[in-house]
Design goal:
heterodimer; A: mainly alpha; two-stranded antiparallel ribbon; 14 helices; 2 strands; B: alpha+beta; 9-stranded mixed sheet
């Protein structure tokens, strides 16, 4: 088990370094932030000097080494746009994104799994068919269309929810939460629904497909033959085995929720990291962009690492198999 | 005794009931970058600074100069401007404004790390004569110094020294300075809280010196940036905000039709035009080898006359533009309607000019266009591509983000490009010195056409120091004749801006697209 952990950790570090280096290569094509930082009256000499001061004239490998060295110490430099430390910016925006992602993931799971089970058990009922058809909108409509549509119907036409922002937030240490105020709770509904729709559909269909397959297996037939109650068969036995691949997918999806809440955050002006990243791209705010992409890579790597561990703990067969493969059991 | 107190209490209650707390919530697409008033000379940043800082000389909505912290100013010698300060002005912390603060602020704005120093290149020295008089000594006579200092905010010297922010934010520093999120000014609003990119809140400054001239009744003001255009409009339509600085043009009609909302529009002091590389012996990005078609005035005029600016106004800008014949707009000193009259849109005449110049079969060229800087910039370029195809000029359009477009121009790596230009000093010299003077790194720094006319350069330098108003105006008029006559640029239009607001808010629209809420009144 230790060998497994160390091996995965080394792989993770390799992935991180590769991603960081690729980001850096990308930034040579991203544009010049200096123009955005000075007014139109600045002379060419001013611009060249600023570029030198920012270290933009140094060769790329040198800039990269400097970045990695600083990043390991938690120092991502100053944002070009806001002239504030990037680490502070990310720490300020992280709670907003994490709350949104948590709310969306929860919604996707709470709606997706039960509906998936229902549509698998009652395959041919009209309710099942309706759910499956409607779920197609979740995968086919782009996020911003859903977002703007929800704003239009539930904010402009019938003013129930606010159309932008996070509402009133409460500061708890370094974390700011919007879930303790009524305006904050109202504000998170529309963005969470928008962000969760795709995941919900995915989970629904995945659970349904897996469940249908599991329901055909022998041990389920034997359970029926033994006379166990329907509910026991479906939930204690079938669902448990269904959830294995679902856990993997959910892990991946949460990573992508964190990374790609950009669109939802932009549409709802949700003050999270996605919005920060998009503004950084338009401004060519290189410190923020590199810090964000490195962080996202870290999120993916960490979550997948956790999922792997979870997998091994859920499925006993995997633990034995791995040990056999490593040659320990004869 | 008891009766009197009762009556007093009752009357106070009545008064309180009638004086309601007026809160304004407003939004636009981009937040100010920093609250340091001398650090970044950028649109939204300057706009924020005007709410809590005052300059010596302010501008009205129609851009005339009016006294700010300076009650009066005059040129006591050819190279010395004297400003008499307003007495009794207090900073938000109660300290009195004196000439020491003015001198300090100007020196801060002239610091190498300041982005406002380019307004003050003619200044040699700023000195305090007495607590209420400041003199600015310039290197040579500078008749337009008052126009150049309307964006210089006056900051408290004592506060800056106490908080270690005597220098503007420098990117070399590894930490943010106190001035990035804190202010100490004399302005109409006091900063209450600042969350960059999230929310900025101000409260009314009850001791503001300008309340008599600008009797605004705003008690609290909240600003939120909303990047997504559809969300901005939704916020206004749902009543979550009262004022929207930049409604997307395609939604203005919808907002106008909504009950309870108004739209105000005006021509902005920003002109959009195309630049052509006339100086190179051969164009970098065209199909013509061995010679430069843009060096021939007939080709430039043909392209000018092939562009239908009224068509662009109607179809691309949805009516929100003012077709132009010169590269600066109404409101700028030196602008005249005669100069702004466009050459006639005439495709037949344009084709004739092209064949006279020897390009009857046309040629190919690449057009560089920004896609996130000016109103509908990419759409305008696409329309122009179609129009130029009529005279045989086949344009390949390359649209980019402004972070890529402007560096390309600065590297002189473009044969044909779109550019827009605003004029904060409201004087033609600003336009000439950046766009038409020979580009030698110090002047003409935005002139990428390669045009170099020594006679024009001489006139531009002369008008910078000519004190005689009549002589100066004559120089300006002649310079415009040369620039228009040589068809140095292809003017398209002046931008028209629209502000959308609730009917409850009374706010005049300003030609420089900068709302100052000291003019606002909530009903």
């Amino acid at each position: 088990m230790l060998a497994f952990l160390v091996g995965r950790l080394l792989q993770a570090i390799m992935v991180m370094l590769t991603v960081a280096f690729l980001c850096f290569l990308l930034f040579t094509f991203v544009g010049d932030p200096v123009n955005n930082m000075v007014g139109q009256e600045a002379t060419n000499r001013d611009r060249a000097e600023l570029r030198r001061e920012l270290g933009l004239e140094d060769p790329i490998p040198l800039q990269f080494l400097r970045f990695v060295g600083n990043a390991v110490q938690g120092n991502f430099g100053l944002s070009y746009r806001l002239a504030r430390p990037v680490a502070n910016l990310i720490a300020e925006r992280l709670p907003a994104t994490l709350e949104l992602v948590a709310a969306s993931a929860l919604l996707a799971l709470l709606v997706g799994i039960p509906l998936g089970v229902y549509t698998a058990i009652r395959r041919d009922s009209w309710a099942s068919r309706a759910v499956l058809t409607l779920s197609l909108t979740g995968v086919s409509l782009p996020t911003f269309v859903i977002g703007i549509g929800l704003i239009y119907w539930l904010s402009v036409i019938t003013p129930i929810f606010p159309s932008f922002g996070r509402g009133e937030v409460v500061q708890l240490g370094w974390w700011t939460t919007g879930l303790l105020t009524s305006s904050g709770l109202k504000a998170i509904v529309l963005p969470a629904v928008t962000l969760s729709l795709f995941q919900m559909t995915l989970i629904l269909r995945l659970v349904r497909a897996e469940m249908l397959e599991v329901l055909r297996t022998d041990y389920i037939k034997f359970a029926h033959a033994r006379g166990l109650r329907q509910r026991s068969v479906h939930f204690r036995h079938a669902l448990r085995n269904t959830l294995l691949p679902v856990v993997t997918i959910i892990g991946l999806q949460i990573g992508s929720l964190i990374a790609f809440s950009i669109i939802t955050e932009t549409v709802f002006q949700w003050p999270g990291m996605g919005a920060l990243f998009l503004q950084a791209v338009t401004f060519a705010d290189i410190p923020v962009m590199s810090a964000y992409l490195t962080m996202v890579a870290f999120c993916f790597v960490a979550i997948n690492f956790a999922v792997d561990l979870l997998y091994a703990s859920i499925d006993p067969r995997l633990r034995v198999d791995r040990a056999a493969a490593s040659g320990r059991m004869g | 005794m008891t009766l009197r107190t009762l009556l007093l209490g009752a009357s106070l209650l009545v008064l309180a009931a009638s004086a309601h707390a007026a809160n304004v919530r407003w939004a636009s697409q981009a937040d100010g970058l920093t609250l340091d008033p001398h650090s970044q000379n950028e649109g939204p940043t300057v706009m924020m600074a005007t709410q809590h800082y005052d300059p010596l000389i302010r501008r009205t909505p129609s851009q005339e100069k009016e006294p700010g912290l300076a009650l009066s100013w005059k040129s006591v010698e050819p190279t010395v401007w004297e400003f008499k300060l307003r007495p009794g002005v207090k900073f938000h912390d109660g300290a009195e404004l004196s000439s020491a603060d003015v001198v300090f602020s100007f020196e801060r704005a002239r610091h190498p790390a300041s982005d406002f120093k380019n307004y003050l290149t003619s200044v040699k020295e700023v000195k305090a004569v007495d607590p209420l008089t400041v003199q600015i000594v310039t290197n040579g006579p500078n008749p337009i110094l008052p126009d150049q200092i309307t964006n210089i905010s006056i900051m408290s010297k004592a506060w800056a020294e106490k908080n270690n922010v005597t220098k503007p934010q420098n990117y070399k520093d590894k930490e943010e300075t106190f001035a990035v999120r804190n202010v100490m000014g004399t302005g109409p609003f006091i900063l209450k809280s600042r969350d960059p990119d999230i929310r900025t809140v101000w409260t009314k400054n009850p001791d503001w010196w300008g309340l008599k001239e600008n009797p605004h009744n705003i008690d609290e003001m909240t600003y939120t940036p909303i990047k997504e255009p559809a969300t901005r409009v939704a916020a206004l339509l749902s009543g979550q905000i009262d004022f929207l600085l930049d409604p997307p043009l395609q939604d203005v009609a919808r907002v106008k039709q909504t009950a309870g909302l108004t739209v105000k529009q005006t021509a902005q002091i920003r002109s959009i035009f195309f630049g052509l590389d006339q100086g190179s012996p051969e164009l970098k990005y065209s199909s013509v080898k061995g010679k430069n078609p843009f060096a021939d005035k007939r080709v430039r005029q043909a392209m000018y006359q092939a562009i239908d600016a009224d068509g662009i106004k109607a179809k691309v800008m949805r009516g929100f533009s003012a077709p132009a014949g010169m590269i600066t707009s109404p409101g700028v000193h030196g602008y005249t309607e005669a100069l702004d009259k466009r050459l006639k849109f005439d495709v037949a005449a344009a084709k004739k000019l092209m064949s006279e110049a020897g390009y009857a079969n046309g040629f190919d060229v690449v057009l560089d266009c920004p896609n996130d800087r000016y109103n509908n910039d990419e759409a305008i370029c696409q329309a122009v591509v179609a129009m130029l195809a009529q005279i045989g000029v086949n344009v390949k359009l390359e649209a980019r983000s402004k972070t890529l477009h402007f560096p390309k121009l600065q590297k002189k790596d473009s044969s044909f490009y779109m550019l827009g230009w605003g004029v904060p000093t409201l004087d033609s010299h600003y336009v000439f010195s950046f766009l038409t003077q020979t580009n030698d790194g110090k002047t003409g720094t935005w002139n990428y056409t390669g045009y170099s006319n020594p006679k024009l350069d001489g006139m531009i330098n002369a008008m910078a120091s000519e004190i005689d108003q009549a002589k100066r105006d004559k120089l300006i008029a002649e310079a415009w004749d040369i620039v228009n006559g040589d068809i140095l640029y292809l003017p398209i239009h002046h931008q028209v801006i629209a502000w959308a607001m609730s009917d409850k808010l009374d706010m005049p629209i300003a030609l420089n697209d900068t709302p100052q809420f000291r003019w606002a009144k909530m009903k």
